Amino acid sequence: MAIERTFSIIKPDAVAKNHIGAIYNRFETAGLKIVAAKMLHLTKEQAEGFYAEHSERGFFGALVAFMTSGPIMVQVLEGENAVLAHREILGATNPAQAAPGTIRADFAESIDENAAHGSDALESAAREIAYFFSAEELCPRTR
Ligand code: GDP
Ligand code: MG
Prior knowledge:
This is Nucleoside diphosphate kinase. By secondary structure, this protein is of the alpha+beta class. It contains seven helices and four strands; from the N terminus they run βααβααβααβα.
């Protein structure tokens, strides 16, 4: 088992509904440790840059509008096979198809506003972590 780091966003809908603590509890219950965290209100440019891979999709404008609609929490999670472990507790992109007990099944209303983000691979995790955090902001959990 490899210790990995992955990147998480609690999106504006879940922050607005006061679900930050409940979602952090899901991370910790799954054995994922938070090694960096902060609240941000994304600019249009930040949201467009983060989701650049989707810039040609029909939903891109709606996605950027949603992601800039209120504050978010961004965090780095560390643990065994963290990328996959985090995607598993997150659930499918469309909450209507997310497995019972997953974050998106329990906290999201629709594919447009689906509560949380998780990196889909180690490479995207490294890129997404670096998009929001400097190396000095990551706090190894050695104790
Ligand atoms: P994820 O990795 O599970 O978040 O899914 P994707 O990388 O495929 O899409 C990124 C984000 O774009 C999703 O989490 C949704 O917020 C949004 N998204 C994806 N598909 C749709 C769609 O059909 N309509 C809208 N409005 N948003 C979508
Ligand atoms: Mg994705």
